[in-house]
Amino acid sequence: MIKSVNNYPVSQLFDIEAGVVYAIPRYQREYTWKMDQWESLFDDVEENDPGYFLGSIICINQTTDTLAVQRLEVVDGQQRLTTLSLLFAALYQSLKRHEKDLDDDQRVELINLKRKLVLKKGDDQLRVIPQIQNNNQNDYRAVLSDVGVISPFDTPAYAGNRKIFRAFRYFQGRIEEMVQGENDRLASIMAFLDKVSQACLVKIEVASHADAYTLFESLNNRGMPLTAIDLIKNKLLARLETTEPGKVDHYFDVWNKLLGYLGDDYSVQERFFRHYYNAFKDPLNVPFRKDEDKKKDPLGPVATRSNLIQIYEKLINQDAKHHLQAIRSAGQLYALMLARNTDEAWAPLDKPLKDLDRIQGAPSYLLMLYLLVRREALGIDVAQLEEIARLLVCFFVRRNLTDTPPTRDLTRLFMAAIDKVAELSGAAVVTTIRDELLAVSASDETFRSKLEGAIYEENAGVTRFVLCALAEQSMTKETWVDLWKYEGKLFVWTIEHIFPQGDNIPASWVAMIAGGDEKKAKAIQETHVHKLGNLTISGFNSALGNKSFKDKRDRTDSKGREVGYKNGLKLNAELATAGAWSVKQIDARTTTLVDQVVSLFAMTGGQPCA
Question: How far is 470 from 464, CA to CA, in rounded Å?
Answer without folding.
Answer: 10
